[in-house]
Design brief:
Layout: H1 43-58, H2 64-70, H3 73-80, H4 83-88, E1 93-94, H5 100-107, H6 116-124, E2 131-138, E3 141-149, H7 152-155, E4 156-158, E5 166-167, E6 169-171, H8 180-184, H9 192-199, E7 205-206, H10 210-213, E8 219-220, H11 242-253, E9 258-262, E10 267-271, H12 281-289, H13 303-314, H14 382-392, H15 399-411
Parallel strand pairs: 1-5
Antiparallel strand pairs: 2-3, 4-6, 7-8, 9-10
Helix pairs in contact: 1-12, 3-6, 11-12, 13-15, 14-15
The chain binds heme C (2 copies).
Organism: Ramlibacter lithotrophicus
Protein name: C-type cytochrome
InterPro entries: Cyt_c-like_dom, Cyt_c-like_dom_sf, Cytochrome_c_Peroxidase/MauG
Amino acid sequence: MRSIHEAPAEAGAGRTRPAFRWWLAALPLAVLAACGGGSSTGPSEQDLAAQGRQIFRFDTFGDEAKWTGQLRMHEVISQAVDPATALAVGLKVDAEALPPAVAQGIRDGTIDLTDPRTTVALLKLDAVVGLKGTVETVDGQDRLTKVGTTCALCHSTVDDSFAPGIGKRLDGWANRDLNPGAIIALSPALPAATRAVFNSWGPGKYDPRFNLDGQSKPLVIPPAYGLQDIHRITFTGDGEDIAYWNRYVGVTQMGGLGTFTEPRLNLSVTNGTVDLVTSKLPALQAYQLSLLPPPAPAGSFDVAAAARGKAVFEGPGRCATCHTGAKFTDANERLHPAADSMAEPEIPSYASRTATKQYRTSPLRGVWQHAPYFHDGSAATLQDVGQRYNSRLALGLSAQQVADLAQYLKSL
Ligand code: HEC
Ligand code: HEC
């Protein structure tokens, strides 16, 4: 076995390996194709969205101050996080960022996926989705000197087309395999009690307020697609546009340099003395608005049952009283008291920790794609969702109607 960083001389018996020239070359830049946005976007909006894609995937807003300066994640990664471990905590590898020789080496097992130096090599290629490493050559050796995170960490996954965890990027799809708590808990800078909280969250979940209010009730990581025309952002509708929340996460969670202020929470956070966030928000928002919810795969639901389920949704299920219109949400008209969430009552109540103290009716386009459901992930399947509403609201639906409802939800 050899690592990516090693000379290829001893590679596979009898085969000549291409010299790993790529290694010496500059980092490959992701190719910016025209953005696959909605048909209504004009050329300049498309440019903005293309810039936003670059930001979404690769911009850290200077959050290395947190991930490197405070949490010292660069040390842990260099010493202990080999690619196998990285994949096990849900990190994804962008197959399109791998030069052919590396892709071949991973395929034939000649690149060592149990060596942390391979992780550093992948970071140097910008191939680890959502992590941005700075790799410098010190005494002829590659060293990871800085690491930061990007939006893609939680809101992109890959299609597994190359291998499990390795494939083409799917931006906007929540990474439900990612265990952000377990990753942060690797930091040598945290006290044991804090690490224990982070380790309790599990895959696909993150509490974006724990570091501010000290309470722990993680949310499922939601998709960042399908938000066009929706003017209440987050589970609790805290912001009227995506940029509100992007600023919140960019500054208060990722640790980007800039300011977030929220009078409703009596909160003001400023990191650093420069602002690396504000100027990027318009492009970042344009990109997210271009991300459409993925259509249900052909054959993934029963068409006849879905048609019956639609009638349940609009009739005896009473779903369409809140899940209204083309996006299946009344978010632009109103928010709902905490009791309208089938995940409440919970301790602590997530809504009580937010600016609105209420919940937004979740949009349902693409809902087939992102189980588990409700803000806390307490419904494993769409069948469970229907069953929960049926019993909690005493809707009196038959088992058949609940099953049909699930087929309809799978079709949206
Ligand atoms: C560590 C994981 C993590 C990172 C990194 C992250 N987010 Fe999120 N994001 C979340 C979670 C968890 C929520 C749910 C928060 C809520 O609803 O209260 C969320 C919510 C959102 C939403 C709201 C979705 C909706 O349905 O209204 C958008 C949009 C979003 N994030 C975009 C971004 C962008 C853009 C970035 C980079 C600036 C980013 N996120 C970074 C975890 C993350
Ligand atoms: C009173 C308003 C209201 C009614 C009626 C209602 N919902 Fe909801 N729905 C919500 C709210 C609010 C949420 C967000 C709850 C949460 O995440 O805790 C939600 C969440 C959901 C989700 C989870 C989406 C996700 O991204 O996790 C599904 C699926 C859903 N509802 C389906 C239904 C179905 C099916 C019905 C009818 C049986 C229904 N809803 C009736 C308000 C409503």
